Amino acid sequence: QMQLVESGGGLVQAGGSLRLSCVASGRAFSNYAMGWFRQAPGKEREFVARISGNGGAIRYADSVRGRFTISRDNAKNTVHLQMNSLKPEDTAVYYCAADSFAYTRGQYASASQYEYWGQGTQVTVSS
Question: Phi and psi for 114 in degrees, rounded to 5?
Fold first, then answer.
């Protein structure tokens, strides 16, 4: 089992920034690719970003590319999501997730590829 705990969410004005963190425990962190997903009220959970186990391969959703940055620190079992230029449409519960396939895969944006999930952290962007 792997436990994931997110933090860093909150309320921010449009154009502002937030940095989300996710701390993992219970498994060899570097053996897992890590992803961030989000879910807005009444909407499906959607892919935001993914980083491979060694940090060498990164993928973003088109909606966040250029504004969000995913990174990881394997020594601290932590993955971050730096979110800049936030928009009201970024409002959602953000989840981190772990995929035991540590490299890039074709279905990287599919939530079903991730075995472990955190409890989520709320991000609210006001206009």
Answer: -105, 130
